[in-house]
Specification:
Order of helices and strands: HEEHEEEEEEEHEEEEEHEEE
CATH topology: outer membrane lipoprotein receptor (LolB), chain A
Shape: globular
Radius of gyration: 25 Å
Length: 324
Amino acid sequence: MRCVETCLLLATLAAVSCACHGPAITGHTQIPASERPVAKDATREELLDAYNLIARNTKTLNATVELKPTAGSKYSGVIDEYHEVKAFLLAARPVEIRMIGQAPVIGKTIFDMATDGDTFRVSIPTKNKFLVGSVANEKVSFKPIENLRPQHLLDALLWPEIRKEEAVTMREFNDEHGRYYVLTVLRGGYQLEVLREIWFDRSNLQVARIQTFGPKGMLLSDVSFSDWEPLEPATAQSNVSATPPAGAPPAPAGTSFPRAIVIERPHDDYKLELQVTKVAVNEEIPADRFKLEQPAGSELVHVGETADTKPPTESKQPPESKPQ
């Protein structure tokens, strides 16, 4: 009896896996050799060196970008998409950054923001307001666009170096979009936590994504990088000075920079899409270009003291207009 059951099972499996005219394949796609992705190999040490080469040698940044902000998400119930603006961005280690956003065509300033590492300042001429607050202030507004801080861009663009004493693990990750290596930087002693995860696209071994985490695994930022292109000589790009600052080495030969950057801040409930149109690294940037003074006649707002931290209530007032 058992022999008969075994024969029936084998016959059934054969019928399922092999029809009269061959295997039961429902689809067949032949990928040309020229279009087949190649997953390059690298060691943990090679990836650490590649990341630190960029982190260590990028001292200043002078870029022109097309900036598109999005505030809110499906989780908050409202998504506001703002007009794309042209932005001029300056950054210098360790903690200085300034960005000026202008409306397209007319060139009218929509915002001007800066930080010195301790205090951030944001000028909004269209509202005649000047916002000042502490970088350490973690209070989150229920108006997502008010959570935009200049230091968020600094963290995304000038990467912190991975020190030798930091614990770093390595793993692979594969999905339908590609194959990746992931370096996980840990912090803490007895109770370890994830500090950062750095994703490398194995098709080119370039950094594709950096995730930064806070206490208890909170995802603070998720930044993606693509369209890496070689940097041109600084003398061909400089609109300030081609002389590198003291102690700052010139960009190494062959160094590249991403032309498409997306910064997502899930707990701040906003996203920034940056398309880099012009960039130069390690130029000398005068200190006064990072200084942002309160415009005469503007209203001074101390963020953290007057921030709207309560959920919005129903109102019959018309919605606030978006930057044009």
